[in-house]
User: What shape does this take?
Amino acid sequence: MIRNNKLLIAAGAAALSAGLYTSAVSAASVTANASARVIQGLTISEDNGGMNFGDVSESGAGTVVLAPGGGRSTSGGADVLTGGGEQAGQYTITGADGKAYTLSLPTLPVTITETVSGVATMTVDNFQQTGSSGTASTAGETMNVGATLNIGAGQTLGTYQGTYPITVNYN
Assistant: This one.
């Protein structure tokens, strides 16, 4: 019996030692590093009062396409008159030098509303810009926006206004 007790004590000591040894080997720690760099956020500003389709007359439903590079074209019963302040929207994008960005314009039509009655509307769609991506700079990059104005038959006379979103994101 004494021999069995010695064996049990030896086995218990070995098990206890193995448990201590295992926990020391299975745990480890390190002091890790964390870092960040804060860069200039992207901004976009409107330079010229925004997109303006100019003076338009209608003798039936039609469209006026305002090109981002300038100029207008028509289809259907729409016609354009010169000297009506037509211009593509011009915007300046600024950000951290050398950082790539992507620009997004509306994919769905936006509504512009006649300013006196507030009832008559037209839609603007097919937005286009001079470049959909670029490299930011603190000096700024200029970008132009054009779109298509949809005029209905018997469109109410007047001045129409509305807004549309432009989004820029770093890649």
The helical segments are 2-26. The longest strand covers residues 56-66.
